[in-house]
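user: can you give me the structure for this one chain? tokens are fine.
assistant: on it. calling the predictor now.
[tool input]
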Amino acid sequence: MHQGSGFLSTRQRRLAWLGFVLAAAQAPVSARFSEDSSWLFSLCVALMVATVIIADDAARRRPADARSSE
């Protein structure tokens, strides 16, 4: 049984992880030093990138023959 491939390349996956870590680390730092709630934007970006990483991981774990033939 072959593993499916995700929609992100290896390089894109690494950049997504880097973006997630940087955005997730920026949120508490900006919350500490900022008067307004602009830190929520960093949190939302981190959550969106995490969603893409999770979706790519799910596509990679799906067997190749389980995909719909389009």
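assistant: here you go. The radius of gyration is 16 Å. Residues 10-61 form one domain.
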